[in-house]
UniProtKB/TrEMBL annotation:
Organism phylogeny: Eukaryota, Metazoa, Spiralia, Gnathifera, Rotifera
Domain of life of the native organism: Eukaryota
Pfam families in the record: His_Phos_1
Membrane-spanning segments: none
Record protein name field: Phosphoglycerate mutase
Database matches in InterPro entries: His_Pase_superF_clade-1 (IPR013078), His_PPase_superfam (IPR029033), Phosphatase_SH3-domain (IPR051710)
SUPFAM superfamilies given in the database record: Phosphoglycerate mutase-like
Organism: Rotaria socialis
Length: 268
C-alpha cells in the first residue's frame, strides 16, 4: 500500500477524483447494456453541481490483515479460553481492544504490525503533499478502522478528525454468507483508543443480507451520493478507508461507467 501511494498522488491537486469534474471512463464496457440495479436511475449529486465547492476524495483500502497472513482460525492460537490475547509472532499486533466476543476477531480481523506501519506511512506521505483531511469515513470493519486511525495519526490529524463509521462502505455481504460478521460497538472502539464521531449517523442504517455484486455497486453509489451531499457546500478533502473493491464501486458511477461485477473478485 505504501509503495503504491505516490503513484496515485498528483501535486497539481487531483487525487483519485473530484466531485465537480466528470469524465467518460476509458474502462466503459463496449456495447454493455447491463443495468440490473438501476445504476443510472439518478445522478451522483443533487442540485446544481456547478455551485458546489471542490471536493477531493482519497479512497484507500485497509492494510495487511492478520487472517490473510496467518490463516483462518488464527484466534484459536492467539486467545486462551478466557479470551486473553497472546500474540504468537512478532508481526502480530501487540494488543487488541476488548470486545464482547473475542471470537469475532476471526472474521472481523485486525491488522498485522506491518499493516499498522503501512497505514501510518501512507498518512505521512499524504501529509508531505499538504493534503489536510477535513473528514474521514471508514467501513465498520475493524481492519479499516485501524487503517484510518493510523493514516490520520501519520498525517498529524488524529486528534482533529474523528472517524465516521459508515455501514455503506462495507464489502459485498454475500461474501460473508457462511460467516456473518459482528462489528465492534462505538464504546468498545472508544475504550480501545479510537477517535470515533459519535454524533455521526451512518447514511446506510442496515445492509441487505446476501446482496449480489450489482446491489453492492448500487449501495456504494447511494452511499457516495449522500456523503457528497453532506460536503457539497463546504468542500474539502474527504478520506474513505474501506476495502479493495471500494475505489471501483464508489467511483464507477462518477465516471459514467457501468458496473463490472466480474472485476470485483480480482480486486478482493
Amino acid at each position: 500500500m505504501y509503495a503504491k501511494i505516490n503513484a496515485y498522488l498528483d501535486p497539481s491537486g487531483l487525487l483519485f477524483g473530484h466531485s465537480n469534474k466528470r469524465e467518460t471512463s476509458k474502462y466503459d464496457m463496449e456495447g454493455g447494456d447491463i443495468d440490473e440495479s438501476g445504476y443510472y436511475s439518478s445522478s451522483y449529486g443533487s442540485g446544481s453541481e456547478g455551485d458546489s465547492a471542490p471536493l477531493r476524495f482519497i479512497i484507500i483500502r485497509h492494510g495487511e490483515r492478520v487472517d490473510v497472513t496467518y490463516g483462518g482460525g488464527w484466534t484459536q492460537r492467539a486467545f486462551d479460553q478466557s479470551g486473553r490475547y497472546y500474540p504468537f509472532d512478532s508481526n502480530m499486533p501487540p494488543s487488541l481492544p476488548h470486545r464482547a466476543n473475542w471470537l469475532d476477531y476471526d472474521i472481523d480481523t485486525p491488522l498485522t504490525v506491518k499493516g499498522l506501519a503501512q497505514s501510518w506511512n501512507v498518512g505521512n506521505v499524504l501529509a508531505r503533499y499538504n493534503l489536510p483531511v477535513t473528514a474521514c469515513y471508514s467501513s465498520p470493519a475493524f481492519r479499516s478502522i485501524q487503517t484510518a486511525d493510523r493514516i490520520l495519526e501519520g498525517m498529524g490529524r488524529k486528534g482533529h478528525v474523528a472517524l465516521r463509521l459508515e455501514l455503506g462502505l462495507f464489502e459485498c455481504t454475500s461474501w460473508y454468507a457462511r460467516s456473518p460478521i459482528n462489528f465492534m460497538s462505538d464504546n468498545e472502539l472508544i475504550n480501545g483508543g479510537f477517535n470515533i464521531d459519535t454524533n455521526y449517523s451512518s447514511q446506510m442504517n442496515s445492509l441487505r443480507l446476501l446482496e449480489n455484486e450489482y446491489q453492492y455497486y448500487d449501495r456504494s453509489k447511494e452511499t457516495m451520493k449522500k456523503i457528497i451531499k453532506l460536503h457539497r457546500n463546504t468542500g474539502g478533502t474527504i478520506l474513505f478507508v474501506a476495502h479493495a473493491p471500494s475505489l471501483e464501486v464508489l467511483t464507477r458511477h462518477l465516471m459514467n461507467g457501468q458496473p463490472r461485477p466480474e472485476r470485483l473478485a480480482e480486486l478482493a
